[in-house]
Amino acid sequence: MKALNMQRLSSLQLTRCSVLIVISVACQVSSGQEPTSPETLDRPLRVLTANIWNYAEPYELRMKLLREQITALQPDVIGFQEAGWKPEEEHQVKQLLRGMNYFIEHESDGSDTKERRLLDVAVASRWPLKRKAFHSLPGSGKALAVEIAAPQPIGRLLFVSTFGTARWQFDRELQRERDAVALDRFVREISDPNGFPPIIAGDFDATPDSAGIRYLTGLQSLDGHSTHYYDAWKAAGNRGAGPTWTTQNHYAKKTTEQFWHLSDHHRRIDYIFLGSPHHFRGYARVVSTRVVLNQPVGKDWPSDHFGVMAEIATTPKGSEATGIDK
């Protein structure tokens, strides 16, 4: 009988232990932490940029659409712009991605002002990350850089989310140019030329033929400097315009008609840039890029901007797109 009781006790302890393990793993997942991380990445890296339009209405419906479409895309790394924070609440990005296994770093939790914020930048990653630097750009832009502990062959990944708070007007190209030059200098100063090429994601308020974007893609110099990054949209071989701000979206149409008096307007102003092989030794190649977060329900869209999703091969043999959500 004593032996039987000991056996039952042992079984009960094992059951309790199993329950505790399950609870522990569940807690890790719900707080955005992966219980395990792969040592190597055997597929292209999936990168998303998304201007989520903070708390604009219909907020709850938009967040539902964003969450559903981000889940379908399965990005590894996300750059957010126009993210919000309210006193006594979690940051908007943390609420949006709750339970989706992302590590998150955002520009601010509002502790600097205790006032509601509407125009933050933020980064979410499947893998652990740490804040590298935050930089205010001279033309009203800003850039949040994080270092991500990505699987091999990537290793340490420098990822930057950027946005300009007051450079959206057509006549602000000087500000956009200054921001482009400062952004490149900022990224080059904190990146490792022997490592994986840095990735920049953001809302640039500028079309591909503008001076600032031409500068970043190596097509012209500015302020006595030149540089080179791949525009993921073009590097993937896309020939279409790929607009991310368009009057097809009635949220954007309302803004465009109000401020610019245009009712038919389509521009590509949201980008993913990949560091150049001229500057970085790590292997990276864009294999696909597409416009995303562009599926409405009736007349409601996830945001007033569409997003951009790129797949980036990390080895010469890993150059096939995964086909997620296609």
TrEMBL record:
Q: Which organism is it from?
A: Gimesia maris
Flavoprotein as a keyword of this entry, yes or no, is: no
Instruction: Print the keywords alphabetically.
Output: DNA damage, DNA repair, Hydrolase, Magnesium, Metal-binding, Nuclease
Per its record, what are the GO molecular function terms? hydrolase activity; metal ion binding; nuclease activity
* UniProt GO BP: DNA repair
Q: Which residues form the Endonuclease/exonuclease/phosphatase domain?
A: 48-305
The protein's required cofactor(s) are namely:
Mg(2+); Mn(2+)
Coiled coil among the record's keywords?
Answer: no
Q: What is this protein called?
A: Endonuclease/exonuclease/phosphatase domain-containing protein
Tell me which domain of life the UniProt entry assigns to the organism this sequence originates from: Bacteria
Organism classification, top ranks?
A: Bacteria, Pseudomonadati, Planctomycetota, Planctomycetia, Planctomycetales
